[in-house]
Amino acid sequence: MEPLLVSLLGMLASGYVAEDSVLGKVLGSEGEVEDGEDEELENAETSEDGSSPLDFVFPDDNSDDEGSSTIDEGEPADQAGSSSDQAATGEDAVSPEALEDEALDEDDLAEDDVLNFEVLTGVAGAAPTLISGFDAATDDPETHPDQLFLMDADGVMIPESEFADGNRALSIVDMEDGSGAALYLDDELVAVIEDYSADELAADTSWVGNFQTGAVETLDIRDEEDETLLAPESTEVQAEEETVQVAPEVEEPLVEEPEVEDAAEAPAEAELAEGEQTIAETEEETLVAEDGSDSLAGAAAEDELSEEPTISMEVTGAEGTGQFVKDALFGANVIYTINTDMGQPLDNIIESMEELDIDHIRFPAGQGDGPAETEGEAWLNIVDLEYAEDGTVSLGEEVTRLLDWAQDPDGDGDTSDAVKVTLVIPTQHLSLEEYEEFGEEIELFSQLVSEQYPDVVAAFEVGNEYWSSLGETEYGAKANIAIKALAQGMENAGLEGEEQADIIAQMATPNHASEYHVSVSDGSWIERLEAANQTIIDQLDDEARAELDGVVEHYYWRQDNEVYDDSLAEKNYITKDYDVWDANFDKELDLHITEWNVRTTSYHENGMKSASTILEQFENMIEMGVDSADVWAVNHNTATDLAGDRDGEVTTDEFGRVTTSVRGAVFDLMSSSLPGKELVDVDLSNDDGSVEVNAYRDDEETVVYISSRSMEVETIEIDLSALVGDYESATGVKVGFDQSSADGMHWSTEDGRVEPDYVMINGEKYYYTEHDVMAEYTDYEFDSAVITVTLKPYEIMEVTFSGGNADISSGAEQVVSEGGQAEDVLTGTHEGAGNDDHLQGTGFGDYMKGYSGDDTIEGFGGDDTLAGSQGNDVLKGGAGDDLLNGGQQDDRVIGGSGDDEVIGWTGNDYLKGNEGNDSVYGGAGADKLAGSQGNDELHGGSGDDFLNGGMDDDWLSGGEGADTLTGWTGADVFSFADGEVTEGDVITDFEPGVDVIELEIPGLRSVDDLVITARAEGGVRVQIPGHGDILLEGDLTVEQVAQAGNFLFIAQAA
Q1: Is the peptide bond before 267 cis (omega within 30 degrees of 0)?
Q2: Which residue, of 167, 172, 788, 919, has the fewest CB within 10 Å?
Q3: Has residue 1001 been placed in a domain?
């Protein structure tokens, strides 16, 4: 059997390199991390499992290469040295038996969470290092892997740039005896890692310390008499849930009631914990003085403009995205046992929500679902009704108190200030058989709520993190019952259409009790994720699907990369989930993020460092099209609360801005400044990621956030002229943290009181991840669009320009036109007006054209013709056999239930056929085409396109460009004509004996004309001499692919 060889370039080509590694960023790949949630229950702590992350192509995302690569991996000998080196595997490479007797016992090792090992290389005659008990964490993206550092002969770590530049090559080969994997550095066998395969190690390279940013100090755990490195046995941890962790019974304060340490007491507290004083000795050294000076920053607020810039940038382009900030994005979780007294919100959270401008809540939050044995204690069953002796039925006391308050928060009888509520319906406390009967209770509950509080309840959410105790089949079956019961209850109450609250259900996460957890299911993370989502969907009948309005995810930041990269990993692969649902429905489902924040246990991403991350998460949600979002949490005993602990009081400065935490300060700025504004896509010169810029605007003002992602004090000069044009006035506010509130210690649920991460600035420790510090604001006025500001590490600046005439946005004015009861011709505002039109057809055959502006055109019934023309348009065909043409720019064009013709024309379009046998044409640009249901034809056109046939038997042709083709289900045909085979063409799910590759190329008449070879990193390459290659991903062999029945040759004259 040939040894499996996986080089770094090979890892890149198959999407194996982790995107959050430096190598992944340099080479432009995207890895996978497991999605999951970050809730805190009352007394238990768990964390989720994952799997080897393999990149999956298509659904709707922003990936550039989707796991494929135009790099030619070459033959194995090109990757790992000479053929003799490749053959040095198994006993020929190293003998584990020979080294076994000299291995250290695990009891000799420290019980650290992460161990770091040095492997010396380049020493003539040195034996390879045998590594036992190494934990690469390849099956759990939540677990930080042990680190292996490759050192040169002088003991200096080999820099990542040596590998990225191609000067060095690290290869991994399976041991023939199955005992582990051999590591080659160039042509030198340097180490053997026991109990791992080459595939497992190649799936995520975050264990290679040389490739990681901010690599920790290495630890060489080595027996003096041999080269054997060992580590404690790795353990698989369980999925994290929403828990309130209780601190161990020691002399420290309980985690449930953390206090912000008083500045006068902080030194003593620190001495008890660490035996050293960690705060500055004088007020002048830590506080901003009356003249605005700051010893750490080395500049005064009014003097910063005179600082010599260390970073100079310029906005070189700006364009409105057509995506606007909705009020519903500033919601929050109100937790039953933390924030209410039997459903009545406590005074502190009411005040906190007022200061944070929160007018949408989720109740009872994560405590809305759970097992039967803890019902009423750890969680609240809101469906539990009260039956009186006279036969009357009423809502439970807790629900009534909560909704009474939400209906009239200040109790003045005026309900115009009502707070909207999402209610969580339990799913985990009953068996499926019992839940059938519970459906009757849900229906009655829905009716009572809808009769009494029709203008308060915005949504019913079915369950909370089902995967903590349910599999997908059971959750889907229960959701099917609950959805129909909720809908029937609202109908019984006399509510129709838009009067009804939304019904939303959870998308899948293969964690913990999931049927697709790594411990019970094979396949990559993405394969299991998609299967889990599909299983839930398959349990929903037609009635439930018709009543379902949206889907739910939780979005917790779990990245540790210094530079934001807009990858799928940053967005927790939420779009991957959504695409599975989107492919199964003939309507657009809303997307709700009912929990979001930095992960509570991501202590190295907290404090000041979290400020820009909150901004990035929020921008990501806008880009994903999120319809509502509820932050976790406002007042709570966690490291990420916005306004203090469960008993804490929100604090503000003289201008009413929240100062309780840095996270709260940033949320407060956004909730005050952004509603109604359009997200603006900004291009920057000199953009190396050390400065992040987020921009929004409307007709009255432009708001720009400038964030430092540098570990140095930076004076940043940024020219925003192209973004704002001529403006009336400009002001700024910088958010840092109050040095007097920092004592150099904070609480960790794992380790108690610990010292946060810091850097030295002017001889003092700057604790940039201390999570229990208070925010501090510095205000500015500017007289130029060229802004200069000095930022300490991770500080952020909000700049607001009033007025401004730069022509960048899509425009907010809308025209809504509706056709009558006939075949109508509707057109938007005349060409050149630049308005956004909303055209609606009828049940007849209509012709509608939008002209300029970002238009929304809906055909409804009849055989319609819809044309977007100019602008970023949304076209929806509805029923009937429709012709839809997006026209110029980037459009979203979606067919309906008939046999539609969907055309993108120019621009980077998203095109979907939906039901029926559709024909979808991408045209020019990098397009994404989805057939969905029916036997569809997909034509990519020019550009690098992504095609997904969806269900049934589809025909896919990528056309010119490097295209990624996914057939999905059914017997699909992948077609390539002369001139269309391009380096980078990929078929992701070719199934031999079922699917067919159609080749319409001169001179090609049989399989004998092709060169079919196995790829070292997996899959098969079909080479068409003189034309190019097609890469087939998946667990395929040459023998399986090289069958005549897998190809259809359309002969042409040579």
Answers
A1: no
A2: 167
A3: yes
**Domain end call among 175, 206, 230:** 230
- For residues 199 and 52, is the Cβ–Cβ distance under 8 A? yes
| Helix 574-584 × helix 525-538 angle, to 10° | 40
Task: State whether 226 and 328 are in the same domain.
Answer: no
Provide the whole-model pTM: 0.57
What are the pLDDT digits (tens) for 220-253?
A: 333 333 434 443 333 232 333 333 333 333 333 3
| Angle, CA 173 vertex, CA 171 and CA 179 arms, to 5° | 140
Q: If you average pLDDT over residues 383-396, what whole number do you get?
A: 95
Counting Cβ atoms within 10 Å, is residue 587 exposed (0-12), middle (13-18) or buried (19+)?
middle
Half-sphere exposure of 365 (CA within 13 A, CB side): 33
The predicted-structure confidence for 427-485, as pLDDT tens digits, reads as follows 999 999 999 999 999 999 999 999 999 999 999 999 999 999 999 999 999 999 999 99
Same domain, 525 and 388: yes
Domain-embedded: residue 642: yes
Single-letter amino acid code for the residue at 733: V
Helix (H, G, I), strand (E, B), or coil: what is residue 885? strand
| 713-734 as b/e: b if 16+ CB within 10 A | bbbbbbbbebbbbebeebebbb
Three-state secondary structure call for residue 861? coil
Q: What is the CATH number of the domain that holds 1009?
A: 2.150.10
| DSSP letters spanning 382-410 | TT--EE-TTS-EE--HHHHHHHHHHHSTT
Based on the fold, state whether residues 537 and 654 are members of the same structural domain: yes
Is residue 962 a contact partner of residue 1012, using CB atoms and an 8 Å limit?
no
For residues 195 and 329, membership in a common domain is answered with no
- Count of CB atoms situated within 10 Å of the CB of 1026: 10
* pLDDT band, residue 67 (cuts 50/70/90): very low
From CA 877, how far away is CA 342, in angstroms rounded? 48
- 831: which DSSP letter? T
Provide the edge-to-edge strand list for the sheet that holds 1047-1049: 825-827, 847-849, 865-867, 883-885, 901-903, 919-921, 937-939, 955-957, 973-977, 996-1000, 1047-1049
Query: Domain end: 215, 230, 245, which one?
Result: 230
β-bridge pairing 901-903 and 874-876: unpaired
Question: By C-alpha distance, which of 238, 260, 227 is closest to 98?
Answer: 227
- SS3 (DSSP) at 353: helix
Let me know if residue 974 belongs to a domain.
yes
CA 882 to chain CA mean position, Å: 35
**Exposed (0-12), middle (13-18) or buried (19+): which is 1024, by Cβ within 10 Å?**
middle
Domain range for 1042:
814-1049
The three-point CA angle 172-176-182 to 5° equals: 25
